[in-house]
Write a structure and sequence with these properties.
Length: 693
């Protein structure tokens, strides 16, 4: 790829639009994109035809409406541009086909919000996210709604939440005499992943069916030497990353940084941030491309949150900020945050929102995969708290305690270069243990799982912060002395929500009991975390901000629990299959082999010692029995799960099935360490984690 020319070559972006559309149409389309105004349908035909012509010139023969159903993945159904004309064919994309599509919605999860007999779902073009050509198809980003107007995807509520924050933030800004056309939120999702060799991957049913290993004794060299993080890239990995970058750049994705992560075989890619809906779309595309490009290199990219036990799992830090179309970042503290009332008010709104809706934020990142990471000393705990760093922490303390703020915290030379004027101290240091940390001019929500659609977290963040803005705006509007009124709100609300601020080590043992004392939620797994979404208060905030109807909110909570239950079910069944058909028989064979050895020794001479074999035979026989019994219990408990009731089913999965699986694994992992590698049916952690050269 030639840079910078090749950047965005597959995207129908602003400059291509400008080039290919008549200027009136271009202006109308830009107005729609920038202000979120309804598209003038009379121009759709012209846009469609230009888009088609451009796509065909890029080799496209098909188009698809690309959407994000509640499966958490993306969906696409391809139609060709071909239409008959006489006995010839022409390539056509009509305005109508650009704007609406009608995929059969009946097989997508709807959480009961759409009865199957009303299978009609519509996809509608989202012009705010650019179309692109991939593998011979024009991809048109769309929202997905039902015949009755209920949202069936992750994109439409995201757009609604962006509208909500735009509306409420502008009210606040107006009180401070700041005018702008639009306020939007930005997200920069840092994506972690594992790369392993395809050859080893294909030998493990668990990796193929569940995306993670269900068994595996710890590897003798994990991450304890701390030598992988930022280490030199292996050649295969470097080739992969270069290829991935070029692929991402061709789709207009600003892939910026890449490096090795903490665990062996673990890596990270961070893009430059963009408006939340574009960040969501490009992150979905990024995850897809990460997997596809891996195949070309004989690799498999694992996006699961915890592919391997005993070493770090993967997350996705969601860097989030709010800014105006005039370039004002509302989370930028400036040089003197203590006298920046607007900044303090916005900060207070975020703190209040996070405290009031801890449960919502926690639930927005809850998934079977992510349950393995949160609170496991490699990722933030399951408790939501806000980290502000020294400077802002001191500022908030002084406000809450009514003390004078001393600006001394702004000392320079933070990286050990004494008083160096070129290294000004950051407003925050790098606390990695906080789930929600202020990092200079943005918040970093660090609890997201690596395979999550980041829409969920951003929908929640936008909505709850919009709600806090609304309450503040209601109070401020019409006040003569806005500064004074705002300072009063700041003081009152920071006092009320002070408990959510935690500026210390979130991995430390002191935090859990301290958080309990403060009355903060600590929901450790999805089955316990997601049900808060049914609580009236948590439904109402989405309804009030126009993001979900009550039915949609409930449906989404149902789907989260259902999805959790289905995943645990698949994992449990896979475990049973692997144990019964591969592992237990293999161990039995090894035991038989040992017995034969003993018999052979005995046949030669009865005095030849066979203590080693005897010990192994005994221990492995015990363990194989333990494993069989544990599998039986798992199968029995799994059968008894009441699937008709989502809450009961997820509870049973979390508190019965998962502990059962733990017992199976315990016995099997010990057997792995005792069984000859000639007999063990699967590649070990060593084989997999050090498979890439
Ligand atoms: P790190 O968290 O590793 O220190 P950075 O702070 O440089 O790295 O950035 C991490 C991510 O945050 C990147 O994706 C970056 O584009 C994004 N980011 C930077 N500024 C903002 C902002 N104002 N709003 C949202 N995301 C941002
Ligand atoms: Mg980060």
């Amino acid at each position: 790829m030639k840079l910078p020319e090749g950047f965005g070559e597959n995207v129908f972006n602003d400059s291509v639009q400008k080039e290919t559309l008549p200027s009136e149409v271009y202006k109308a389309l830009r107005a729609t994109i920038e202000s979120g105004k309804q598209l003038d349908t009379s121009i759709a035909g012209t846009v469609a035809s230009a888009m088609k012509k451009w796509a065909v010139s890029k080799g496209a023969t098909h188009y698809t409406h690309w959407f994000q159903p509640l499966t958490g993945l993306t969906a696409e159904k391809h139609d060709s541009f071909i239409e008959p004309e006489g006995d010839k064919a022409i390539m056509r994309l009509t305005g109508k086909s650009l704007i609406v599509g009608e995929p059969d919605a009946s097989s997508f999860p709807s959480g009961g919000s759409r009865a199957t007999y009303m299978a009609r779902g519509y996809t509608a073009w989202d012009p705010t996210s650019p179309a692109f050509v991939k593998e011979g198809t024009l991809y048109i980003p769309t929202v997905f709604v039902s015949y009755t107007g209920e949202t069936l995807d992750k994109k439409s509520p995201l757009l609604r939440s962006m509208k909500a924050i735009d509306k409420q933030a502008k009210r606040i800004l107006k009180c401070f005499n700041i005018n702008c056309k639009k306020v939007s939120c930005q997200a920069g999702p840092e994506q972690e992943y594992f790369l392993i060799s395809e050859e080893e991957y294909l030998k493990r049913k668990d990796l193929q069916l569940c995306g993670r290993t269900l068994f595996g004794a710890p590897v003798t060299r994990g991450q304890e030497l701390e030598d992988h993080y930022f280490g030199v890239l292996k050649t295969t990995v470097a080739d992969y990353m270069r290829d991935l970058d070029e692929e991402l750049w061709s789709y207009g994705i600003y892939s910026k940084t890449k490096h090795n992560e903490v665990a062996p075989a673990q890596h990270e890619m961070a893009p430059i941030y963009s408006t939340t809906n574009i960040a969501v779309d490009t992150n979905m595309l990024t995850m897809e491309l990460m997997k596809k490009v891996a195949k070309r290199h004989g690799l498999v990219c694992l996006l699961h949150e915890k592919p391997f036990r005993g070493i770090n799992g993967s997350g996705k830090h969601n860097n989030w900020s709010i800014s105006t179309d005039t370039g004002l970042n509302l989370l930028n503290p400036g040089d003197a945050p203590e006298s920046n009332t607007l900044f303090k008010l916005v900060l207070t709104a975020v703190i209040k929102a996070v405290d009031d809706y801890q449960g919502v934020l926690r639930a927005s990142v809850a998934s079977a995969g992510n349950d393995h990471r949160l609170g496991a000393d490699e990722a933030p705990p399951a408790i939501i708290s806000v980290y502000l760093g020294d400077q802002l922490g001191a500022l908030v303390d002084s406000i809450v305690k009514g003390e004078n703020y001393v600006t001394g915290a702004k000392a320079q030379g933070s990286i050990g270069v004494p008083e160096s004027p070129i290294f000004p101290k950051d407003a925050t240091d790098r606390n990695r243990t906080s789930p929600f940390a202020f990092t200079g001019n943005k918040f970093e929500f660090r609890m997201l799982g690596s395979q999550a659609n980041v829409a969920d977290a951003n929908i929640s963040l936008n909505t709850i912060v919009a709600d806090a803005f609304e309450q503040f705006a209601d109070e401020l509007e019409g006040k003569k002395d806005v500064e004074k009124a705002a300072e009063a709100i700041i003081k009152r609300e920071l006092k009320a929500h002070y408990r959510i601020i935690f500026n210390h080590d979130g991995y430390g043992p002191e935090w859990e009991p301290e958080a309990a004392k403060r009355g903060l939620l600590n929901n450790k797994n999805t089955a316990d975390a997601a049900p808060v979404l049914y609580e009236d208060k948590n439904v109402e905030v989405f309804v009030k901000q126009g993001v979900f109807t009550k039915a949609e909110a409930i449906a989404r909570a149902d789907i989260r629990l259902e999805n959790y239950t289905k995943i645990i079910n698949i994992e449990a069944l896979t475990m049973v299959e692997m144990a019964k058909r591969d592992i237990i028989p293999a161990v039995s064979d090894f035991i038989a082999d040992l017995c034969q050895n003993v018999a052979a020794k005995q046949a030669v001479c009865e005095s030849i010692p066979f203590e080693t074999e005897k010990k192994l035979i005994t221990r492995l026989s015990e363990l194989n029995d333990t494993a069989s019994a544990a599998v039986e219990k798992l199968e029995k408990d799994l059968k008894e799960v009441n699937r008709a009731d989502v809450k009961a089913a997820s509870q049973a999965m979390a508190h019965k099935v998962i502990p059962d699986m733990e017992e199976v694994r315990k016995a099997v992992d010990e057997m792995e360490t005792l069984t000859s590698s000639d007999f063990w049916p699967y590649p070990t952690y060593f084989d997999i984690l050090y498979s890439v050269k």
